[in-house]
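lol so apparently i was supposed to do this last week
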Amino acid sequence: MRQLFSNFQVGLPTGSIYERPNQGVRRRNANFESVLRELKSRGISTIETHHDFPDPEVILEMFPNASYHLTRRAKVAGAHNALKYGYTRIIAHPDYITDINPWKDIGKHLLIENMDHLDPQWRSAGALSTLLEKLPDAGVCLDLAHAIDKPSLLDGIISIYGSRIREIHLGEINRRNGHHLSTISKQSTAHCISFLHKVEQGTPIIFELALGASWKESISTVESFAEEYSC
Ligand SMILES: [Zn+2]
Ligand SMILES: [Zn+2]
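anyway here it is w/ zinc ion bound
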């Protein structure tokens, strides 16, 4: 039984649906729509698209609850564009938000993400509170891979901002460069599962995997994780 798929909305990022995104070639697979349909039939119920990927409307048509990850370049104008498309979860890294005021208009649709060890000033609940207190409607995107090396950081965020967590990122990163891996080790899987038991069931989970991973590799990583979750 794939319990994970019944307890949570499970999704993949557009990086695993487009051809060779790591080489700067971000174009649709010839069978793009059939890949989306195949993912849906295998239990994927949400997608995270990145600001610099094409076709945000196509994604939203098939996955109305998809999320939109901004880039530093996108700034707040990118968030307004995402709102116009109809995205309801718009992810920003804390350092994208330099002037708070223009971000207030994004309201509850803005989700601020905790960062990894390469961005040490934005890892704890205390650090995130400098933004979250001034943006009372904004939510949290909890990236487990970003803090799996220091579980106390995740516990701190969950205990203070648990009710504001509206998206979870899951995966494993290369500690040296922060890049995502295409698989998740047994140990990280166990860690992630222990945190999934602490967050609200039903929260969308995005498996952030290596940009170069194909959708077939990505879905098999998700399925292996789901098997462990249901054990
Ligand atoms: Zn991010
Ligand atoms: Zn993330």
